[in-house]
């Protein structure tokens, strides 16, 4: 039975009241309650039994102040102790105000600790048990060295707690300490915000680390941290810094204004980040050195002072579906023997090269986009990089440069609007080019310097400002199935001693087909110029503008548009089947199916010589993020191509940054360039409502909309425009210009996925990667999606894919502990592989 003990000054509290808190504690039995009257109590308290201390009149009414000296105000030596609504003052900011001994336990609720730290010590070995501490709605302020120090075998939890004004590190974990912090607010520390040493562990959720003097989150030794939905703001050094063999997993975190790099991974550390952003870093957005590894998915790195991503040593970086925007140096810079893998990434508006690979580093790019950079991709390493299905647009200088002695394979590359040459292969470089397109370059389409002998096949070069292919003195190589159209200078130019081989090449609508200097020895096999066989030594056609062959031009500000290479023919029924295989989206599937039937009728009337009915193919896609808008848009273009209503059916995805300029006269050309890239296909404008902000003023977005309206009219039969965004905001976009309402006559509503549909997405992902969900895991997964908040952070299909990734990671950790896992164990995803709802 709990006994209540009252502590009050003389003359208060009635008969039986204790005059000091210490007396009441000594008189209490385990489980008793000590109720303290308002006032400041100058004592060194020792809690050696399970007692609860509480302020009679609530928070702020009771202060326990340590007497001058080195002893803490409160020392906890027993288990299950608690303080409620009490303020603790330390005697010296550099000493503990509250000290918890090994094996003890303490709950602080609605408490403040000022002028000294909370220090918790646990047993040094696992056999000594653990020390358990919980802080709820507390405030730790004004300590020196550390605000909270957890050492040894400690298990601690912080809920809705603030740590502020620390002359040192806010929270320190060492030894085997473990901390679970939810809604922690840590600010104004002269040292790091949080520091982990030894083998300590941290789980950080929905928290803010702001204004630290050094790193926001520092991990050393063999520590581990998981952080979700948290912010690290204006740290005095790195935002998150990993050294030693530390491990960190970040999900939906924001790192802004770091004085040094946003993310730093060194030595043998490993970082995994998903859905995170790094902005305004004072150095790199991501720095990976030594033999460390970093894996980023669906992340953004904006406005870095140095290169947005920098790898050195033997570091490994893997980025998927990431965006790099703005920055004073390179977008991605790999040196030493580092390896960088970029998949479906976008790099825009950096001051130097989009992707720079030097020394013996290796880069692998797949499905990436580089735009608005000084140079697009620079390969300076002989180790052999690969660039596949990647687009480089609007560079001020060269689109892709293979430096002296470097080696690269380019497959399906698309280079458009380069201010100088599209592709340059320097002296002695090794380059293999398979397919792709180079167009609208101010200089030559491709330049091959002395000693270089690239292998080029299936490349289309259209509208180069100078030559289609320029070969310098002594250059060579093999060019097979090369198409050059509308070149301003001779399509092919070979300097003295150049001996390239051209096979099955086609020259069309060029100023001249072939230009050669004395001593050139090109070989032409089955090549034509405007349908006429082309052979070396035949007089060239008269130049349309009288200009001879020339070397590459100097950089200019010219930016133009480009298409991707011609898509393969596809069957309409197969495409409709692909549409109906998508998870959910029943209403969208029905709408698209109706549109296809309408388009089929239009096509048949045209083939019969009948006039087509009035029809707008432009659409509005209204829906929240992750509901499949881009996927359906891409499929819609392919359907129209299969119906013969679009020439190519490709999709060009843009947003406000790709259409709106930064100064007067910049927006029109920028919008036109983006629109021209989509000719023959689909222009998909994501977050289209941002072109018509609620308080537009002199916003250039209105100019972009007006330009789009005119271009849609001028090219109404050769392009489809799809405007996408949140349902509530798209009405404002359509109403921003009278010409939009008549051109966007149909809106497709993309509804949020239901829990069962999200489960189907996870199962589809599992099937693709050869995993199987157990029945229990499927049931628990449904419950997880059912309980998941549908706020701004909810990503629909993206959230489902993230959970699948988390499940595979947790399964991998679980299976790794098995001595000889069976095949079933290797592929089974079980219920305990699901992330805990609190971790999201």
What does this structure look like?
- It is a single chain.
- The protein is α/β, with parallel strands linked by helices and 840 residues long.
- Helices cover 18% and strands 36% of the residues.
- The chain is built from 13 helices and 71 strands.
- The strands form three sheets. It has a 64-stranded mixed β-sheet that branches. Strands 66-67-68-65-69 form a five-stranded parallel β-sheet, with helices on both faces.
- The longest helix is centred in the last third of the chain and has 22 residues, at 586-607.
- The radius of gyration is 33 Å and the shape is elongated.
- The two termini are 40 Å apart.
Task: State the gist of this model.
This protein is α/β, with parallel strands linked by helices. It is elongated, with a radius of gyration of 33 Å.
Largest sheet: 64 strands, mixed
Mean pLDDT: 88
Return Rg in Å.
Answer: 33 Å
Low-pLDDT residue intervals, each spanning 5 or more residues? 538-566
End-to-end distance, in Å?
A: 40 Å
With helices defined by DSSP (H or I, 4 residues minimum), what is the helix count? Answer: 13
Structural class: alpha/beta
List how many beta strands DSSP finds: 71
Estimate the global geometry from the Cα principal axes: elongated
Percent of residues in β-strands: 35-45%
Helix fraction, binned, reads 10-25%
